[in-house]
Amino acid sequence: MQNNSEKQGKLVQTIGLTSAIVLVISSVIGTGVFKKIAPMSAELQSPGLVLTAWLVAGLISLAGTLSNAEVASMLADSGGDFVYYRKIYNRFFAFLFGWTNFAVIRTASIASIAYVFAQSLNSLIPIPNSSSEMSEMSFLGLHFLDNLGIKLVAIALIVFLTYFNTKGLKLGEKLSNTLVTLMIIVMLGIMILGLTSSVGNWEYLKQNSVKFNPEEMQGGTLFKALALACLSAFWGYEGWNSVGYIGGEIKNPQRNLPLALTIGMIIIIAMYMMMNFVYLYILPIDEFIKIHETKNGIGAVAVVTHFLGSWGGVLISCLILVTTFNCTSSTILLASRLFYAMSHEKMFFKHVDYIHPKYNTPSKALALQAVWASLLVLSGTFDQLTDMLIFAAFIFYGATTFGVFILRKKMPDAPRPYKVIAYPFVPAIFILFCIVLLVNTLMERPSEALIGLGLMATGLPFYFYWKKES
Fold first, then answer.
1. What does the alpha-carbon distance between residue 377 and residue 374 come to, in Å, rounded to a whole number?
2. Does pTM top 0.85 for this prediction?
3. DSSP character for 208?
4. Do 234 and 61 meet the contact criterion of CB atoms below 8 Å apart?
5. Which long-range contacts (CB under 8 A, 24 or more apart) does 188-195 make?
6. Which domains does the chain have, with CATH numbers?
7. DSSP readout, 136-189?
């Protein structure tokens, strides 16, 4: 039941297919396509393997998208996977999903992307920073005043975009449409200029690193390296399911939501493959390994500066500003609907299910989300949290895909406006990969995996409290 203590509006179906596709693209393309070339090169030491990792991660993400689309075509509503889990599994599992998104997945993503925006702005316009004495001050082991200038810019961006998205869904839609168009034009320009540049060399695409050992890089070693590199690539693809959170605000969601998910992901995969191809055409892979080892630079900036000169560095920095601004805005817009849906079901803080009577947006969910994301920025822990994000996210991605099999058995005659292609192979392959990724992460990076599970578990006291109150 809706909270009636205050006058409220309602969520309105205003988003068409084109805008839904744009929101898929804008919620995914943020920092990964620019930054992950360096760590992936260090892990694989081979241009061919790096491109393979991007393609494998993209195709696996597409398999998850196609599976998610069938569930979305049946159960589309505000809250996305939270709504699906409540109907497929139970309230407890739905709560764990929502809480993990609030504690880590979405809010840490907002904090991380906003911070990269501030870093990129700092490379163009130096931002005053905190003194070394202030930076060394700590509370509970956290350095809240370290890089304070950049943190305050990141927080200012979160606050501004939260206010902006409170003013109505159409404003956020128009902003995404404009920025995605600009972003794609600039990225295509970089691809064309890069491939026609005289500094590029086709041989770079064939040359492995001087550190590459073909005898070692095979069998289990190769599999582990590819799996870890795919973790970096998955951060680049992270967020594709977020548009499901506004299922209740998309026109004809049973048709348009699956189409938006599928078309959006295909466009993203194509853009990522072409951008990384250009990177590896312009610079030899050892240059990206050096960037990773020195931890001083962004692979995409080094590439564009190399073939366009200093103004190219400015161009790519501006592009990163646009993509991070847009991705932060879209993540803020979409994720808030999840927390609204949780509160509406009495599984979250009271009154967060409030809908602004004038703008028809979940204004209190937006505000709470901004507060927590800003605290994560100040704490400086968001980078560590995003390392654990992929592990937690794939638990839920696998659960949604497994829901395809459950719904086929429980509701065989229910209308399915969209059915996943090559059923049962596509969802089965995705579920198998999720299991492999989770097991591999537990074995290779146990601390990140266990902390990720621990962060999920922090919601347990809240769940039992809210269950008692409802």
1. 5
2. yes
3. P
4. yes
5. 190/275, 190/278, 190/304, 190/315, 190/316, 190/319, 191/274, 191/275, 191/278, 193/307, 193/308, 194/278, 194/281, 194/282, 194/303, 194/304, 194/307, 195/278, 195/281
6. 17-101+156-352+390-444 (1.20.1740.10)
7. H--BTTB-TTTTHHHHHHHHHHHHHHHHHHHT-HHHHHHHHHHHHHHHHHHHHH
Using CA atoms, how far apart are residues 280 and 415, in angstroms rounded to an integer? 46
Question: Cα angle vertex 261, ends 256, 266, to 5°?
Answer: 125
Supply the angle between the helices 382-410 and 47-75 in degrees, to the nearest 10.
50
Residue 246, classed as helix, strand or coil, is strand
CA distance 54 to 95: 32
- pLDDT tens digits, residue range 232-241? 888 889 888 8
CA-based Rg of the chain, rounded to a whole angstrom? 22
pLDDT at 30: 84
- CA 257 to each of CA 25, 68, 76, 244: distance values in angstroms, whole numbers, following the listed order: 13, 10, 8, 7
Mean pLDDT of the chain: 87
SS3 label, residue 193: helix
Chain segment 96-148, per-residue pLDDT in tens: 999 999 988 899 889 989 988 998 888 888 887 766 666 566 655 555 666 78
Evaluate if residue 387 carries a pLDDT over 70: no
Contacts for 316 with CB less than 8 Å, ≥ 6 apart = 34, 190, 300, 301, 303, 304, 305
Q: What percent of the chain has pLDDT over 90?
A: 51
Task: Give the pLDDT band of residue 62 (cuts 50, 70, 90).
Answer: very high
Q: Are 64 and 239 in contact (CB under 8 A)?
A: no
